[in-house]
Amino acid sequence: CAWVDCPIKNIPITRNGIVFFEFNFIFGSFELKQLIQQGWYYDEQKLDLDKYNYPLQIPLHQNGTMTGKLFLDYNASTSLEFDIKTSSIYFNILKNNQLIERFSADDEGKFTSFLPTGEYTVIIDEASLPTNVYCEQKVRKVNITAGEITKVPDFILKVKEKRVNKKTFSN
Questions:
Q1: pTM summary value
Q2: Which residues contact residue 70 at a Cβ distance below 8 angstroms, ignoring those fewer than 6 apart?
């Protein structure tokens, strides 16, 4: 059994649409770790098993996948000095102006998140951007559909440019 450290004793039994399992276990605290399978998931939970009969309901939710990436747009000859590690750049996901999740891009600037169906706002965290790097369009709206992959438009990172002093001479 993947969710708790105890083996299933026998075959699950379904009664009135509810699945029942019997476990061999010791009393104590356990954690149900999130498992995502075929577009369905459940929230992580702590269990304090202190009796032999422990009714447990685990609501399932449908989810979708959101993917995106960072794109670096700069001119090497005119850009200010910068050091970029995309895995240090963070994003916040909001639903109804409430923070749902915070995550970072990977070393290649790509990111993936599994979310329940609904409308979300993805915001790049400006405080996590390296010195001299900025993003003009920091906010993206996405609609997540169960079982589908939603591609977020690229977050384009730009690098500040050196100030060039021009002198003109005339006769």
A1: 0.64
A2: 86, 89, 105, 109, 110, 154, 155, 156, 157
